[in-house]
Amino acid sequence: MKIAVLGAGESGVGAAMLAKAKGLNVFVSDMGQIKEQYKEKLASAAIPFEEGAHTFERILEADEIIKSPGIPDKVAIIQEAIKKEIPVISEIEFAGRYTNAKFICITGTNGKTTTTLLAYHLLKEAGLKVGLAGNIGESLAEKVIDNRYEYYVVELSSFQLDNMYQFKAHIAVLLNVTPDHLDRYGYSMDKYAASKLRVAQNMMGSDFFIYNADDENIKKAFHSETFGGTTVPFSLQGAKAAKVTLEDKSVKVAVKFYEGLINTSKSSLIGKHNQYNTMAAVAVAKLLEVSDEQIEKALETFKNADHRLQEVGVAKEVTYVNDSKATNVEAVWYALEGIKKPIIWIAGGVDKGNDYSTLADLAREKVKVLICLGKDNDKLKEAFGRIVPVIAETTSINYAVRLGRSLAEAGDVVLLSPACASFDLFNNYEHRGQRFKEAVERIVLKK
């Protein structure tokens, strides 16, 4: 069987390594330049590859094409494959064929990385044989080669879900659906929501779909009456059907074989969105029969990924919080809502068609100063000019942090939560967050 892999990043190279391990004839093609670490892996496995071009003739000889998630269907090589009726699948779909492990698959516009890491942490600390993979940055296909795990916690983007057909999760989680990446979906929220709901495809009665019953787009798109699995809705707003809720600082879970309260008071996660994330992750753990005591102990030791409402320093009683991953309005709403102290807010970058009106009440209540960090700040200034008492702007993150320090008083929070993409001044949100942390470290060292 001939396999062509398009894209030679983590996903594509992992798929190629698995194909080679299974004795398939595999060829890798990348329109860009392949990173040295991946070239070395391909060469060491004697997998032929090309970079800087797609050789259509060779690719279209394949019996099946595995497409990296960043490649849209509209590109010429995919359109040609569709014309020739060559199946185009994702790395996740391919990997699922070669293991009997159970998959815990997590998606959502916001919060999926935090929830994936937390669910993995809860299961691992309880002693389950569990692996971590997917959009988190680790290839599921490559992990399946050794097949050492009974469970995989897999973060899935909508792009990965789009080319999954026969794959089935044992537990699927859908956190929320809000506008993002709509250019890939014809600017249709219905199509985007349908993509996210693929996480629950092919489920049967013994499989569980954990979903946010408060999310309007999920309620509109999900038809429970035709669903083949077992639903586990979670809610902070008192949804009638909810099986997972929050009571004070405890998560209440009520499923067929368990009903009880799990204390979450020692968790370091803050904000309303992290209450949703925690409910979902705790529900995963309870469905896999992890004890209350094990969950509570693991919640206390969990450390989230960088750049997600991450406290990075305190100087002169001013706290600095790095939320660089907040690249859309909803993520910033959760940050502003979750912080209970006065805020010096650093925001801006490449606007993604944002509607800032939903932030107006929180900004009026909590934000003392808005520091616009970007090349074009007009939309932010227009949205908050009559709401926030002080507005400044800069293209230097070092200046933004120094200005935040000079304007903050004891008890305030200097918050980087941009609501925008980072590409005007930085390589990506990680680069932006790292630069913020470095600027804060200089202040902390001088305190």
UniProtKB/TrEMBL annotation:
UniProt binding sites for ATP: 108-114
Alphabetically list the UniProt keywords.
ATP-binding, Cell cycle, Cell division, Cell shape, Cell wall biogenesis/degradation, Cytoplasm, Ligase, Nucleotide-binding, Peptidoglycan synthesis
Q: Where is the Mur ligase C-terminal domain?
A: 307-420
Chief subcellular location equals cytoplasm
Pathway connected to this protein? Cell wall biogenesis; peptidoglycan biosynthesis
SUPFAM superfamilies the UniProt entry points to: MurCD N-terminal domain, MurD-like peptide ligases, catalytic domain, MurD-like peptide ligases, peptide-binding domain
What chemistry does it catalyse, as a reaction equation?
Answer: UDP-N-acetyl-alpha-D-muramoyl-L-alanine + D-glutamate + ATP = UDP-N-acetyl-alpha-D-muramoyl-L-alanyl-D-glutamate + ADP + phosphate + H(+)
The segment(s) forming the Mur ligase central domain are 106-285
Q: What does this protein do?
A: Cell wall formation. Catalyzes the addition of glutamate to the nucleotide precursor UDP-N-acetylmuramoyl-L-alanine (UMA).
The protein's matches in NCBIfam families, at most eight in alphabetical order, are given as: murD
Query: Under what name is this protein listed?
Result: UDP-N-acetylmuramoylalanine--D-glutamate ligase
